[in-house]
Design goal:
Elements: H1 2-22, E1 26-32, E2 45-54, E3 60-71, E4 78-79, E5 91-96, E6 101-109, E7 114-124, E8 130-132, E9 136-140, H2 148-171
Antiparallel strand pairs: 1-2, 2-6, 3-4, 3-5, 3-7, 7-8, 7-9
Length: about 170
């Protein structure tokens, strides 16, 4: 009986959350910038555009929106610390009237290779519901860390420099 009551309670919470979600007064869209590289590599920048709109009948006050990034590689699923990725900080909108919207661009510098999912979240200061945009997935290619333009002068120059110094010391 206890299990059945727990199941009904859980079902009620889930159904209640579903209807609160459907009646959410704020809609968030998320779109990758068309200028983003087709095959982004480590070190590249991506930009995402979001529009946050009050679709309700009441003003929304104290709306905070932020970007979140999750690595979704099998076995490496984890949230990403955006401080390293030079991501945009959260934005605050003191008031958003019914029907009013605002746009935010979210730049991200790609630090690590892998598969990622980005989402924009928002919360109203007085509400108890977290709102989120649809996900945007992307893949970051590994960037070679050894470039011949940087390593070749050192690889060839150091032996020549040592030989020249040794020859100069022998002549003295």
């Amino acid at each position: 009986m206890k299990r059945m009551m727990s199941l009904f309670a859980l079902l009620g919470v889930l159904l209640g959350a579903g209807s609160a979600w459907a009646d959410a007064p704020v809609q968030i869209t998320l779109v990758p910038d068309p200028q983003n590289p087709a095959q982004p590599k480590m070190g590249d920048w991506l930009k995402f555009h979001s529009v946050i709109k009050n679709t309700g009948r009441q003003p929304v006050s104290g709306l905070v929106a932020w970007i979140s990034l999750v690595q979704v590689d099998p076995g490496k699923e984890q949230p990403v610390d955006l401080e390293d990725w030079s991501a945009h900080k959260a934005v605050l909108r003191p008031s958003l009237a019914p029907g009013q919207s605002f746009s935010v661009d979210w730049p991200i510098r790609l630090i690590q290779a892998g598969n990622y999912r980005v989402v924009i979240s928002a919360a109203e200061r007085t509400a108890s519901t977290l709102l989120a945009s649809p996900f945007a997935d992307f893949h970051v290619e590994r960037k070679p860390t050894i470039e011949s333009g940087r390593i070749l002068p050192v690889a060839l120059g150091m032996p020549l420099l040592i030989a020249a110094f040794a020859g100069w010391r022998l002549r003295r």
